[in-house]
Here is the input.
Amino acid sequence: MLGLPFFKGVRAETLPSDLGDHPLVVRGLTVSYGEKPVVFSLDMTVQDGSMTAIIGPNGAGKSTLLKAVLGIVPRLSGVVAVYGRSLQASRRRVAYVPQRASVDWDFPTRVLDVVLMGLARDLGLLRPVRDRHRQRALDCLDRVGMRDFADRQIGQLSGGQQQRVFLARALAQDADLYLLDEPFAGVDAATERAIIRVLKGLNADGRTVVAVHHDLSTVGDYFDHVLMINVRRVAEGPVATAFTEANLQTTYGGRLETGHVDQLNVGKIHVD
Amino acid sequence: MGGEFVMLSLTPILIGVLAAVACALPGNFLVLRRQALIGDAISHVVLPGIVVGFLLSGTVNSWAMMAGAAGAAVVAVALIELIRRLGGIEPGAAMGVAFTSMFAFGVLLLEQSDTSSVHLDVQHALYGNLESLIWVEARGWGSLLDPVALAGLPPELPRIAVVAILMLAFTVIFWRPLKISTFDEGFARVLGMRTNLIGFGLVIMAAIAAVAAFDAVGSIIVIAMFICPPAAARLMTNRLEHQVLWSIAFAVFSAVVGYVLAGYGPLWLGAEDAVSAAGMIATVSGLVLGIAALYAPHRQRSGAPADA
Here is the structure.
C-alpha cells in the first residue's frame, strides 16, 4: 500500500486456528539475549476490554515480553496472535508506549512532531502534514494536558511531561490494544494521575490496555487483570484471584517480606 | 578576470561544494545516531578497493575505481561483523580494527605497486586533487552555454553532482522513516518500518557519498564534512528540518571560503605558494564547528531530567 520496502506489508503468517480472537495471545514464547533465556516458554491471554498489569522482579523479562510481542526483539520460538491474526496483519490496531529512557530526548524535534509520529502510517512517505493531522495531534496532547507544550523542544520537558508526550503519540495511533512499558516509572504524582485517567478513559471506551507495572501497591487500584512473570509465567487472571500472597512469593522469590505483602492489601478488590 | 576564474576556480569550487553537501546530508543522521565514525571508517576502508580498481583497470578516475571502493566497503562490513562475532567484542572496537588494517593494507598496496606514472599516491588519497580539476576549455562565463567547452568539463563534476542529487533525493523521500527510526527505533518497528533496512540504506548512502567525494577531493574532506557541518548545525537549532538546512549552508560556506583561503590566504600573508584546498576546507569546517560550540544558541544539552 505504501509501495516501498521500508514499510512491512501485510504478510500472512501461519497461526494455529485455536487461538481465538483475543486482543493478544502468546503461546510458548521464548526470547534469549545470548545464551540465557530472558523469557521462557511463556503463555499469555489478554482478555478483550481488560486493564492488564504485567508484574515481576527486575530482569523477569517484562519489557522483553512486550518487545518480542511487537517484533522489536526477535523471538526464539513461540506464537503471537493479535486479534486472532499475525502482528503484521493487525499492526494498525496496536499502539505502543516505550520506556521513556529508551530514547535520546536531546533529539532536535518539537513535542507536536513526536505526536505526529503516531500518524506515520496514515501519512506514508511523502503525504504532507495537513491541518487535520495537526489538529488530531493537538487533541491527543490536550487529553494528556500537554497542549500548551506543542511547540517546545522535547529536551526541555520534565520526565513526567515526556511520558505524557509518549502517551499522546500512542493516542494518535488510535488503536484497540495499548501496550505500555512502565508508564508510571519516574513520573510525578500529577502525571501518574493524568496517565491513569487517560488509560481508564480508553478502557471505558472498550479498548484493551496492557502495562508493565512495578508498583505493587497500585495494582488493585489501576488494573483488573494481572500477569505475574519471572522468566516463566507464574500466574495469570483477574486481580481478585491471581494477585495472591502465594503467587507474589513465587514471582519475587524470597525478596518480598511478609509484612510488605500485608501492606499491599492483597486480595482486596478495589472498585472505583 | 572572469575567464581566468571560470577556467581555474569555478569547477574546483563547484566540486568542493557538491562533495561537501553530499557528505553533510547523510552526516546529519549519522551524527544523531552516534554513528559519525562510520564516515571515517568508510573513507579509510575504500582505499585498498580504489588501488585494486586502479591496478585492474590501469587508469585513474574510472568507474573501476568506484567499483573497487564499493567492493572494499562490502568487505569491510563483512570483516567488522566477523571480528565482532569471533572476538565477541563491541562493534566500535571491531570497526577500529577493520578500518585501520584495511587502510594500512591500501597504503602498502599503493607503495608496492607501480603507480608512479599516474597521480595516485597517499598524498592524493588524503588531500585529493581539487586544484587540478580545472576547466581547460573554458574561455569565460560564455563557455557555460558552449557545448564544445562543456564537453571538456572535468568528469568529477557531473559525477559528484549526480551523487549530491542522489543524497538530496534520499533525504527528502525517506525523511519520515529516517527521522522516526533515528529518534525511536522501537516505535518505528511497531509502525511496521524496516529499521534495519533504513539503517543499512543510510550507511550505503554514506558510502556512496564518501567514495564519490574521495575520488575528487580526498578523504580529509569526507571525514570533516560527515561530522563538522551537521554537528555545528545541531547547535544552531532544535528542529531537525532546520538542522539539515543549516548543515548545507555550513558545508557550502566551508567549501567556498576554504578554497579561496587556500588559494589567496598565503599570498595575503606574504608567502608565495598556495596551500591544499581540501585541507583548508576541512580546517574552515572545523573552525565553524568551534565557533558554533562557543556561541551558537542551542549549546545546552538538557541532560537527565531532574526527577529521573
The two ends of chain A are 44 Å apart (CA to CA).
